[in-house]
Amino acid sequence: MKDHYAALGLRSSATLADIKKAFRQQASIHHPDRNSAPEAAARFRAAQEAYDVLSDATQRKAYDDNRQRNLLDSPIDTARAIWLDYFNRIA
């Protein structure tokens, strides 16, 4: 499961204004026209997908509910996925 909050560098308590601001920042950093790094396009798409989900109230509620359920159903798998995602970003 993708962590849309991590893609934008936000906490799950972020407001819509926080989401918009974070998306604009990530988009300006990772836009393929501005950043020639190989992973820039993928990070830009991840930020766009995160924004699409989190900026829509209905989609965000469904995402948050599913995220909460995953944390409760399989905490070890969820922790592993979070750590792998984190270490892949800093590597």
Task: Describe the structure in your own words.
This is Chaperone protein DnaJ. Residues 3-67 form the J domain. Pfam families: DnaJ (PF00226). This protein has 91 residues and is mostly helical. The protein has one domain: Helix Hairpins. Helix content is 75%, strand content 0%. It has helices at 4-8, 16-30, 40-54, 57-73, 75-90. Helix 4 (57-73) crosses helix 5. The radius of gyration is 14 Å and the shape is globular. The mean pLDDT is 89.
CATH topology: Helix Hairpins
N-to-C SSE series?
A: HHHHH
- Helix fraction bin: over 70%
- Separation, N- and C-terminal Cα atoms: 20 Å
Domain J: 3-67
Protein name: Chaperone protein DnaJ
Pfam family, one: DnaJ
Organism: Rhodoferax lithotrophicus
